[in-house]
Amino acid sequence: MTTGASIVTIGDEILIGQIVDTNSSMISRRLGGIGVKTLDMISIPDDREQIISRLSEELARSSVVISTGGLGPTKDDITKDALATLFGSSSYVRHEGQEQEVRRILHSRGLDALEVNLAQADVPAGCEVIINHMGTAPIMVFRFPEGRFGHPAVLYAMPGVPYETEAALDAVMDDIRAHFPTESICHRNIMTYGLAESALAKLIAPWEDALPSGMHLAYLPNTLAGVRLRLSVYSGEKCKAEADMDAEIAKLKPILGDRIYSLREEPLEAVVGRLLKERGATLSAAESCTGGEIAHLITTIPGASEYFLGSVTSYSPEVKQKVLAVSEKIIEEKGIVSSEVAASMAEGVRALTGSDFSVATTGWADAYGDSHEPAGTVWVGVSGEAGTETERFNYKGDRKRNIERFSASALDFLRRYIIKHSKI
Fold it and tell me: How many structural domains compose the chain?
């Protein structure tokens, strides 16, 4: 029997949109990595009867159920009691290892270990515990015999705090592998930028149609990352599947050329950072319409201080002129959103910081434009020893979405410039 999994988030705050559920996608990716298919993904409210009934349904459907949320110390966190009823446990025991973790965590924060906190180490009798080293609520493991749901089943009840969930997933995945058969699931990611999903699908249709039987392709668009193509093989020998996918990717590369920016699931800013590090080169940025978003993205990558020198958010014409030495005449004649201004900004910040490369943006992010350029237009300038180049992009989203697209387009243009002018 192939092992299938259900992922259940518990909490009113998810259903009313107060918080965004990131746990489910994170857990699903990890399950896929060990060869377990996610069969269902649901959210349920903080209601005792629904928790019991809906989890029972998922345990009847899947061999593995992973729930997150509802395990806090406050009175509205009723999940533990519901789980005890579902499991048929009428008493609680205190788990010594988790109690020690609760005390350690609270003391490290300068807080007293109150009984309401220590009670989080109380678990329904008969369940197993994976210690939560990042928080106070343990991961509870409930194993059900075949007779209960028609097959052996296990429920992992995890905390809802994403970093606590993430930290415990290694132990949960190890436990699943130890108790259930898993199949070979192989994925390959092909990160592309610069083509809309529909245009990309049309371009690669002959290649997609010729994929071997059993190899599946998914299109996963994202504003900042472009379109991620994911090749998957869900059965068979792992090494052969990986070799087959590598062979298909080799056929795809000549079709897409530099539209492919990575064969790993990584963002454009990580690729730019790696290119700069490989060349021992530095970067600076001058941003107008993107308002510092490019600098933000670049500095989210560990080690960015090795290559990123800094940025200027030159939002007003006066700052462009005084700090970046953009000519007032250029602004008046060509418009604040123009190839010439983008080029001058890139050259100005590169001279100001002494960086090897620079990137600059000037555009209209919302409903306003001028006589030179319409709304949704951005000009990107990139400067380096090989000279300064510019490129124009136009998008139809709202202000926030356009800023994200402007920033991603600038990073991709910078990536292509670096590769074009500084091969190693």
Answer: 3
